[in-house]
Write a structure and sequence with these properties.
Elements (H helix, E strand, L loop, with lengths): L4 E2 L21 H4 L25 H6 L6 E9 L2 E7 L5 E3 L5 E2 L2 H12 L8 H4 L1 E2 L2 E2 H12 L5 H4 L14 H8 L18 H12 L51 E5 H12 L6 E9 L4 E9 L24 E8 L9 H15 L9 E6 L11 E8 L11 E4 L3 E3 L6 H14 L18 H10 L9 H14 L1
Parallel strand pairs: 1-5, 8-10, 8-15, 11-12
Antiparallel strand pairs: 2-3, 2-6, 3-4, 4-5, 6-7, 9-10, 9-11, 12-13, 13-14
Helix pairs in contact: 9-11, 11-13
């Protein structure tokens, strides 16, 4: 398949022309100075001094300041990293998709808009790095070598305001704040080629919510949620486990950008999974995205039978791929066993990363949904677990150092007609996985004054059962296994 060539959209604030459109009507010999010429072009109507805009990647390659190679170009933006290959012809190939871009600005604008659709410009020479250094610095080095008599003030000028956006560079931001960049997911390969085992691994590795001893968890240290408006700029002193209240789209005068429908079997399985252990659990969601109706339908939950942060244990998850079922990866879930179903700062950063990875290439948009289940939080009304969907909106462009905004997602719940064999099998496998674990919930013990943990589990699942009740005896068999296991 021929590689796509993307160009910088018109109307950007940081005006930087594509290199192959530098000066219409001039050929390359006129637009670019010859090596060692001191940048003086005979008969050049622009004068004897080449402007910063006239210095292209081809110029830097030809004069030996840059060398074509794979993976030497990078962009850091709002905690995300993009890697590109530099071609001998001065083009940039984004490794994620194979798309080809004619200039740093075209690539930077495309990547930044994936993270933040409101981004108006890419400011490529101030954002793209070659082997860790900004391209602007290589441009300045060329000027010092070939135009030593240019006044420093003129030499230091960025291309049409590029320097003004330098604070958005996330690598420097991370250094200033003493925080590590968000870890990259393993889902950089095409999702269609990923197996269930690999996807669980990608969700489990960066979750990192608590890798301490099991059964020493949240119930002894309740976390008090904070309002998003109180957070301000990122602060390395703030705990990543800080819970944040979600914001409604109506509160910020925006419409929810997509609709969501969730199967009752999905809620039943992830609720069951979340009840089994005092430690946090994780899994992912399979479904379909309809671009015409903008409807995300979540049809299956796939629990990861693995410990958070234990990449090797992810191998215990069956190899069966959800794509063989005609489903796509549309999101993930995890639990807060004894706390409210609200995202932590870490959850917000992780969700932003998943949204970017699942969004796809080009101008397409596919949402990624996050669900949090709080099974044993005593602040829940009644015995039913709180299962809260959320999505993260990038911070305002003028405040790139802020946290993403956790948004409450309105969802339509669809009651399934019957309980599938897949769900029953997953429930049985989960019981077997947690059997004898030190953090397994003791279901015979009292959860409240008059209810055991098993009573609590049954009561919560009762609200998520299908229309057909003929499966009840099968669930009772699973409950019996739980008693024996604990």
């Amino acid at each position: 398949m021929a590689a796509l060539v993307a160009t910088s959209p018109g109307g950007d604030e940081c005006l930087e022309e594509d290199e192959d459109e530098l000066e219409p009507g001039l050929d390359e010999a006129e637009a670019e100075p010859e090596a060692g010429s001191g940048a003086k072009v005979a008969g050049d109507t622009r004068g004897a001094v080449l402007t910063r805009r006239g210095i292209t990647l081809r110029v830097l390659l030809r004069d030996g300041l840059l060398e074509p190679a794979r993976g030497v170009l990078s962009i850091y933006y709002l905690g995300k990293k993009f890697v590109g290959d530099l071609g001998a012809d001065g083009t940039i190939t984004w490794q994620e998709t194979g798309q080809v871009f004619n200039s740093p600005s075209a690539w930077a604008t495309h990547c930044k808009r994936l993270v933040n659709p409101a981004k108006k410009s890419g400011c490529g020479w101030a954002s793209v790095r070659y082997k860790g250094q900004k391209l602007d610095q290589y441009k300045a080095a060329w000027l010092r070598k070939h135009q030593p008599n240019v006044p420093p003030a003129e030499e230091s000028l960025a291309s049409e305001g590029e320097e003004e956006e330098m604070p958005e560079d996330e690598e420097e931001e991370a250094t200033r704040e003493g925080r590590a960049p968000v870890p990259e997911l393993a889902v950089t390969k095409k999702l269609e080629e990923r197996s269930k085992k690999q996807q669980c691994k990608s969700l489990a590795e960066p979750a990192g919510m608590d890798h301490g001893p099991p059964a020493k968890r949240l119930e002894s240290k309740p976390r008090v949620p904070v309002r998003y408006c109180t957070l301000g700029t990122r602060d390395s002193a703030r705990s990543p486990q800080t819970l944040v209240e979600v914001t409604s789209f109506a509160a910020i005068n925006k419409f929810q950008p997509f609709n969501v429908a969730i199967s009752s079997n999905v809620l039943l399985l992830l609720d069951f999974h979340s009840h089994l252990t005092r430690s946090e659990v994780v899994g992912y969601l399979g479904g379909r995205w309809d671009t015409n109706t903008q409807l995300l339908t979540v049809l299956r939950a796939f629990p990861c039978r693995t410990r958070l942060g234990d990449a090797e244990a992810a191998g215990a998850v069956e190899e069966e791929s959800l794509f063989l079922r005609g489903l796509s990866l549309v999101g993930w879930y995890h639990s807060h066993p004894f706390g409210p179903a609200l995202p932590s700062l870490h959850d917000i950063d992780a969700q932003m990363d998943y949204q970017l990875k699942l969004q796809g290439s080009g101008n397409s948009f596919q949402p990624c949904l996050a669900l949090i289940c709080g099974p044993y939080y005593h602040g829940n009304p009644g015995v039913e677990s709180k299962i809260a969907p959320f999505w993260v909106m990038p911070p305002p462009e003028q405040r790139p150092n802020d946290y993403g905004i956790p948004m409450d997602v309105e969802v339509a719940y669809i009651q399934d007609g019957f309980l599938t064999n897949d769900v029953l099998q997953e429930m049985t496998l989960l019981v077997e996985f947690y059997k004898g674990a030190p953090d397994l919930v003791k279901f015979q013990e009292l959860w409240s004054q008059d209810q055991t943990y098993l009573d609590k589990l049954k009561g919560s699942l009762a609200s998520r059962t299908p229309k057909d009740q003929s499966f009840t005896h099968v669930l009772e068999q699973i409950y019996s296994l739980l008693k024996l296991s604990s």
